[in-house]
Structures are given as C-alpha cells and as structure tokens.
Amino acid sequence: MNFLIRNTLIYTLSVIGILAMPTESATLPQDLLEKSPRHHQWVDLTNNNGHTISSFVVFPESKNNADIVVIIHENRGLTDWVRWVGDEIAKNGHFAICPDFLTESGPNGGRTDSFNSSDDARTAIYQLDPEQITLNLKTVVEYARGLPSTTQKVSIMGFCWGGAQTFRYATNDNSIVSAFVFYGSPPEKSAMSRINCPVYGFYGEKDQRINATIESTEVAMDSFGKIYRPVIYEGVGHAFLKRGFGDNVSQIEKRANQAAWSRLFSLLKPAQ
C-alpha cells in the first residue's frame, strides 16, 4: 500500500479548497475560545462507580439536532488547544464533548488545570485504569445521547494518548459510528474483532514509533473484515495537527494540518 500517493491526493483537495477547515491563526487557543459565538459549558458527570469526569461541551449553531463527537485529549490532559478543537468541531455542525480524564487525579482532586506542570499531568495520565477510562467514556456517550438537541450518532476522535484510547474504545462500544485516530497506537489485535465502525488513521511521516504499527494493524483489521483507513501526511511528525496550529509553522506543516482537517470534515458530515 502506498500511503504517500493517497496523501498526495488529500493535499490536492486541501489546496483547491473543496472543504471548509479552520482558518484562525496568530493567536492563542484560549483567545479563540473567548471569541467563539458558540455556547460552551462545563458539566460534571458521575459514572456508575461514583467517579466524576468533568467535561467541556460545545453546542453548534444549528436548527437541527446534532450528531455527537467525543474528543479525547492527548497525554498532557485537556488543554486549551483540545477545547479549541471541540469548538471547531461544533463550528462544523456537531455537538462536541471533551472529557477531562484527569478529573480527580490532580492536586486536591482537581483536573488537568490543577497540575503544576504538563509533565506532572503526563505522569498522572499513565496511571489511569483502562477500565475506568472505558467506563468514563460510556458515561460521556450516554450523557450526550440524552440531550434533547442531539442525535444518537456518536463518533469518537483523539490525539496521541487519546488516539490510542479512541482505537481501544471502538473495541468496547459497538454503537460508535466512526473512530478517528490521530497518531495513536492500536489495541491488542484480538480485540479488533469487536470493532463495529470504520477507523480512520491520521499519521505523520516522521513518526515511526507509531507508524511501525500500521501495516500489522491493517493486516489484523482486514482479517476480521473491519474498515481501517490510515493516511500518512508527508514531511511532518507526531502531534502534527497541534504543531501546525497558528502562523509560526512551516509550509509543510500548514499543508499537512489543512489536509488532515479537510479529510476529517469530509468524513465527519453533520446531520441534515
């Protein structure tokens, strides 16, 4: 399979401007969130074990009920950039919910913003119980589906650690309609047999730590009759979607960023 040929086709789509994509630059994610016309709020959800997961939600400006996108943050926790991604997803017509999986793990039971440093947050995130993560995600999905302004269609996406959790959650919830894995590692091969939705991968060319798993993942997914569509974006590395934010980036990073957003929005069509 020639990933770079497929990648070139996606670059062409982004260059001719067929699809909408984020255009904001030269500012901080927090500033963009403050300027957003969409409704933002924090909700505290409680799972069946009594644990709380604080989540940032964004409602689209729409006359129709919206499909749902759950966004799983990277290994530094729920940052302003991830919340901005949620706002962009809502701008595209979806209800976006961004759970903070570090809720109750920070100092004094706080969430991501309570940690003294991003390194402390990263240390804490790798101590989380995988079963607790799954339970929290199911709680988030149930909450979103229960809102009067949403549909029952749920997609899930995540970055880095969140990309791995996205892929893993697809093995645990057969109601998910699509999964978008941004530079995340795959689950155990045997678990892939339980996946019931297409999985779309977004990978940087200079990220061999993750890319080395793509071929075997393709083989495993194909053996189970599952849909897995990976694309490698030329000239960029890990976390390229975040690194391509703003103006102080190379043209290669900008093109990869735009191509990935373009592909995501083409696959993530809002409810009509």
Defining traits:
272 residues; Rossmann fold; 10 helices; globular; disordered N terminus
What do you see in this structure?
By secondary structure, this protein is of the alpha/beta class. The chain has a single domain (3-19, 27-267), classed as Rossmann fold (3-Layer(aba) Sandwich). 38% of the residues lie in helices and 22% in strands. It contains 10 helices and 8 strands. An 8-stranded mixed β-sheet has the order 1-2-4-3-5-6-7-8, with helices on both faces. Helix 6 (161-170) links the parallel strand 5 (150-159) and strand 6 (178-182). The longest helix is centred in the last third of the chain and has 17 residues, at 251-267. The protein is globular and about 40 Å long. Mean pLDDT is 91; it is low at 1-20.
Give the CA-based shape.
globular
Number of strands: 8
Question: Any idea what the CATH architecture is?
Answer: 3-Layer(aba) Sandwich
Share of helix among residues?
A: 25-40%
One letter per element, helices H and strands E, the order comes to: HHEEEHEHHEHEEHHEHH
How many domain modules? 1
Largest sheet geometry: 8 strands, mixed
CATH class: Alpha Beta
